[in-house]
Amino acid sequence: MFRTIHNINSYLCSFFKFTNFFAKLGAVIQSIPVAVMGGICILLFGMIAAMGIRHLIEEKVSLANMKNLVIVAIIFIIGIGYAHNGIAYATIAGLLIHWLVPNFTTKNEP
Question: pTM of this prediction?
Fold first, then answer.
């Protein structure tokens, strides 16, 4: 299912990049109501978050490790909290925390 959605998103992205070169098609896209574009944005960012969570599950990332939990929490908060470039700031923060913070251990971890 996710593979099909990923393919559809790729085709739509290519279509919108292609239509950028034609003013009349750009005008059609600009005629889409703001509420509809808001719904599309909610869907887009929700899909990005869902794919990130799916990736964590597939890679079997242990959230029992405190460092991993802190990184995921900060990435989500920064990504959701910043209106402009939030995903970029979240990525930078996640990388910095991963590189600079030592590993924490909990009592349940081997």
Answer: 0.57
